[in-house]
Amino acid sequence: KMNFILKVLITGLIAYLLQYILSGVHFADMKTAALFALVLALLNAIVKPILVILTIPVTVLTLGLFLLVINALMVMLSESFFKGAQVDGFWWALAFSILLSLGSSILYSLVGGKKE
Length: 116
Hints:
Elements: H1 2-18, E1 25-27, H2 30-54, H3 56-61, H4 66-79, E2 85-87, H5 90-111
Antiparallel strand pairs: 1-2
Helix pairs in contact: 1-2, 1-5, 2-4, 4-5
């Protein structure tokens, strides 16, 4: 339970910081970025597995690269829940999702995410 909260906070922090690197990503404040991270985590737990199963043939055909498209769609769907969050299109969502995954993984491992 505590690990989930830590992951959401780290993801929110990385999302908020990424707006300074990616000019197509905007958050009103840190609170919006943290809520965005929470919604993204919930969508990744509920909607993403369904999409992955439905798109197995395309994913196999593209050697797994279609999973990046699914990640970008999850970012765009999460962004649609907030007025204070904006991603300026698919390509920004794709870049954001890749950097968000890398950044949050690195920071979470540094902060001390213990294996369960």
